[in-house]
Amino acid sequence: MWPERKEPISPDQRALRPRTTCADRRPGVPGLPRRWMDAENEQGVAGVGTGMQTWEAITSRRNVRSFADRPIPAADLDQILEAGRRSPSSQNWQPWDFILVTDREQLRELAKVWRGASHVAGAAAAIVVIGPPADNEFGRAQLDLGQATMAMLLAATDLGIGSCHAGVTDTQLARELLGFPDDRTWALLISLGYPVDRPLAPIRNPRRRPFGEVVHRGRW
Ligand SMILES: Cc1cc2nc3c(=O)[nH]c(=O)nc-3n(C[C@H](O)[C@H](O)[C@H](O)COP(=O)(O)O)c2cc1C
Fold first, then answer.
1. Phi, psi (rounded to 5 degrees) for 126
2. Does some domain include residue 147?
3. Which of 52, 67, 92, 117 could be disulfide-bonded to 166 (CB atoms 3.0-4.6 Å)?
4. Residue 162 Cα, ligand 1 centroid: separation in angstroms?
């Protein structure tokens, strides 16, 4: 039984409250700490091991643009990509492809596809999210690509890995560097790496419009 709640609890208070999570209630995987769960895909086991609960990852994610000179383990990169692959999409059409880049020279070149993409040059890795043109019915591809992107950002945060978006305006340069087909005309970069400054931790006061201004109940 939940104790009777006297006052509404704000999302920030909720973030700081000790919780019992689904992971705590699940039976453990033999040989692994209780909160570690494994999930299999065609590549074998992926998604083993997690350092954070979902709410911690949501409240800790922020764009990180300065990265430590330390590679990300291949299994962690695969876990992040797997989070994208598992994302929901309209009619499950999965309009995305992901190109993983870890080569330093290639990252430096990729950083030139948009003036806001300079952080990609110093990242440990980048995931290029590729999709179809934006003129599809009700912009559903872009919604789906956004969801896949967010899933990967949260999966990265969960692993203590910082991330940052970057748009792509020079699609032709991106195509030359990455070789994706002509019918894929939309691309977005996610740079990844360990934060060079402070580690990822829940942010008490994010730079966001106030809760009461954003949330409308019943009608506008
Ligand atoms: C679609 C999209 C494109 C973005 N493009 C860039 C970019 O090109 N360069 C960059 O440094 N940040 C980019 N960002 C990051 C935003 O500036 C950032 O999310 C926002 O300022 C909020 O900061 P926070 O995520 O750290 O809270 C982009 C974010 C989104 C969602």
1. -135, 145
2. yes
3. 117
4. 13
Residue 3 maps to a domain: no
- The pocket around ligand 1, CB under 6 angstroms, is made up of 62-63, 65, 114, 116-117, 119, 164-167
- 25 belongs to a structural domain: no
Ligand 1 pocket: which of 114, 120, 164, 189 to mutate (most atoms <8 Å of CB)? 164
Nearest CA to ligand 1 atom 20: 63
Q: Say if CB 95 and CB 142 are below 8 A apart.
A: no
What CATH number is attached to the domain comprising 156? 3.40.109.10
Edge to edge, the sheet with strand 186-193 lists 97-101, 125-131, 186-193, 162-167
Total count of domains within the chain = 1
Q: What is the pTM of this model?
A: 0.81
Q: At what angle do helices 74-85 and 140-158 cross, to 10 degrees?
A: 150
- Interval between CA 206 and ligand 1 midpoint (Å): 14
- Domain range spanning residue 176? 62-196
- SS3 label, residue 177: helix
Q: 7 lies in a domain? A: no
Percent of the chain, pLDDT > 70?
Answer: 76
Report the 10 Å Cβ neighbour count for 131.
21
Mean pLDDT of the chain: 84
Residues 118-166 have pLDDT tens digits of 999 999 999 999 999 877 777 789 999 999 999 999 999 999 999 999 9
Whole-angstrom Cα distance, residue 89 to residue 77? 22
